[in-house]
Amino acid sequence: MNKSIKLIHQPRRMASLIVVLLLIGIIGLEVILYLNIRWVSLARRDIANDQVRLKTLNRAQQIFPFNDEVNLELGRWWLTQAQSPHFSYEERIKGLKKAMNYLEQAIRLNPGSYRAHFYLAQVGQVLRFEEKIPFSPISEFKKAALLTTYNEEVYFQAGRHLFSLWNELSPEDKEITWQLLANVITPNNPDHLEEILPSWEYNGASEEVLNKLLPQDARLYRVVADYLARRGIKHELRLIKLAQAEMMEFDQARRLYFQALNQAQISQFRRAEQAFQEAYGLLQRIKFYQALIGEKLIEESDFYVFSKEIKKNIAFLRLSRGENFSSVKTLLLSYLDEEDDVDALENFINYLRQKMEIQGSKIANQEKFLFFYLESLVDYKKGAFSQLSERIRSQGVFIQDNILDFPAEVADLWRIVAESYLNQDFVYDSLEYFEKALMIKPKDMNILLGLMETYERLNREDKIEEVSLRIAEIIREREEKFRSTPLLPGKTTNFQILASRNTRRLKIIFDLADSRVSPLVGVIINGRIEREGFLKSPEIEVETDFKVGINQVEITSYNTEIRCLKMMVE
């Protein structure tokens, strides 16, 4: 009986023992897996020291060699080490081989690991030149891209590396590469295009490839143009891309202009002003590179119409918000400088007059003077010389009282009334006001030239010579004060030159002694590109229609540092 009981309890003990052992095994396995995953996580994110990181990964692999993530991280570690310049050639090759072995093991454990395929492809890109490898880097990059759901960084990196192998790709692989890059080279990620362009240059800088790669976006076209300038290659392509970018920016500015008009009509004034501002910013980027490629992509008359209308509308919207004339003076004066239509000028001043009437007695004296100044400029532009001269003469005391706050505007009023008298053949009256203007701005070229014309009418040869000498002296003094200026690569430097009525060309002298490459230099005068090309000598001459008075000159050396020694008008 006792023997029977023992026989019954023996299997039960064995079963219990097996259960206990299984539980211990499961717990032990969970501990191993926890430690394995924990060490991998630490090595991936929290350990900065390379050797400690390697030791942690090796420990994780020793306790559980079947985690593909451990092999992936070990492969990445050795790949990073192999790319270090501190190691010898033999050490780098040895590191690449270890990286390959770990990454291949990671793929065997998890064939769907796109990261393992991606890093293995990177290893193969280098190692294939040293020995025969059992895989194709191109195939591994393709697998990395195909195995992931949309991942912008993976798409870009896979596409970038495939693009670097462009001349080795089949037509099908080239199409895949284009598709990958098309998903990530967008206006929101211009840096991606920057990273691709060196590979494009290395593989022959094909315009056909670039055009297929580029979305039609002005910002990306400018990225390409800037890269070509820095590298000093394919200058004609750069000019084309800039001209095309400007055309796109003009089209966008035009759309924003009409959008702003519609928003203003439904009283969305804030949005309208924002759209006008965006349009204005786009127009300011346009330097008319189309002139350098011999194509007419932008109708210049349309450009100037939109430019002046946008300035006027921005100013009017601000005035409607309660801002004063002082805050929008620059916009209003710029509009007046460009507007020649009599009806438009009349509507302009009527709008400002209404704003004055609404404010009534609350309007400050400075605002009254600025309105008077703008009203006088409108009369001058309209050719209402008799009305203008009468108004200014009758308001002489009021004008004189504002000379401390507005000296430039007062001088301008004396000048335009002097020119009005000259247009009416009241030469002596003209002379009086030119001299009053000259007392405020003794070096103003428009005043001096007006004074010279007055003396010519009076046949005063002595005075004509005196004014001519003064003009020549002012220009000479300005040129003598010019200081040698460094032009840093890619940085635009602004200058001002003084031009008289007879100025036709600008001579610029550079110092090229320290330049190891032929400098690519662009010259923009008064907002228009006048010249861009590689310097073949230290001197260049630029011919254009200069404004009488101050002219803005922007000079950029795109690919190397040079110095601008001197600028002279002729």
Mean pLDDT: 85
Strand order of the largest sheet: 1-8-3-6
CATH-scheme architecture of one domain? Sandwich
Shape: elongated
Radius of gyration: 37 Å
Could you name the CATH class of one domain? Mainly Beta
How large is the count of helical segments?
Answer: 24
CATH topology of one domain: Jelly Rolls
Helix content: 55-70%
Are there runs of 5+ residues with pLDDT below 50, and where? Answer: 31-43
Strand content: 5-15%
Largest sheet: 4 strands, antiparallel
- Multimeric state of these chains? single chain
- DSSP strand count: 8
CATH homologous superfamily caption of one domain: Galactose-binding domain-like
Structural class: alpha+beta
End-to-end distance, in Å? 131 Å
Any key phrases for this structure?
570 residues, alpha+beta, Jelly Rolls, four-stranded antiparallel beta sheet, 8 strands, 67% helix, elongated
What does this structure look like?
The protein has 570 residues and is an alpha+beta fold. The protein has a domain at 484-569: Galactose-binding domain-like (Jelly Rolls), CATH 2.60.120.260. It is built from 24 helices and eight strands. It has helices spanning 2-46, 50-63, 68-82, 89-109, 114-127, 137-147, 152-164, 171-182, 190-202, 207-213, 218-231, 235-265, 269-285, 290-293, 300-320, 325-338, 342-359, 365-382, 385-394, 396-401, 407-423, 427-440, 445-457, 461-480, and strands spanning 485-487, 492-499, 505-511, 520-525, 528-534, 539-543, 549-557, 562-569. The strands form two sheets. The protein has a four-stranded antiparallel sheet, with no helix packed on it. Helix 7 runs parallel beside helix 9. The longest helix is centred in the first third of the chain and has 45 residues, at 2-46. The radius of gyration is 37 Å and the shape is elongated. Residues 31-43 have low confidence and may be disordered.
